[in-house]
Amino acid sequence: MSTTPYGEATWDLVPGHTALVLIDLQNDFLHPEGWYATSGVDISHMRRVIEPTRELVAAARAAGVPVVWTRHGFREETAGTFPTLRPFLRDGGLRQDTWGYEICEELRADGFEDGDFLCHKSRLSGFYLTDLELILRGLHAETVLYGGVLTNQCVAATSKDSNFRDFKTIVVEEATGTTMPHLHDPAIEMMRVGWCQVSALADMTAQLQAMTAPAVT
């Protein structure tokens, strides 16, 4: 008899102890006029996250769940090896204090709000040399939902680091996307069997809505 070498996580969403983190949903990644698209990178799979993100954010706000947005960017002196690994970024893109660095216009219109938390990052993990953990601890978060781009890179790295910090980590599958769609499903499976819960959008929005429902007496 063979033994399954992992157990799938199932975490509860607890009022006052849940947060939503959205990774790198910026103009340069998602907008048709952003650096990725204008450099010839196919952004269609990444853009699939826009509507699910709107739905997820709306459900989170209704449930009183705080929303944290990360933005990935750098200045020349802090770029490290990134431009070598992404040659099309050597001359521009993902630069701090530019239009491309900002939260995608399509999400700012009815997703991002001024009361949300913003976290700057310059490496794949949203926890590396950032204040993300400080924000989440300050919010008393125990369970953290994640969406964003890219599935196989920043989402995978951040969710793994989230697990390392003992957060109950949930990745919302429809709210993630990548530039290399053939890597999406393997990355999702890697996360599911390795370090976090992976859930469907409908399941998460239903759980968030249940948090807002009045108690039955």
Automatic annotation (TrEMBL):
InterPro entries: Isochorismatase-like_dom, Isochorismatase-like_hydrls, Isochorismatase-like_sf. Residues 18-193 form the Isochorismatase-like domain. It comes from the Bacteria. SUPFAM superfamilies: Isochorismatase-like hydrolases (SSF52499). The keyword Ribosomal protein does not apply. It holds the Pfam family Isochorismatase. Keywords: Hydrolase. Transmembrane segments: none annotated. GO terms for molecular function: hydrolase activity. This is Cysteine hydrolase. It comes from Baekduia soli. The lineage of its organism: Bacteria, Bacillati, Actinomycetota, Thermoleophilia, Solirubrobacterales.
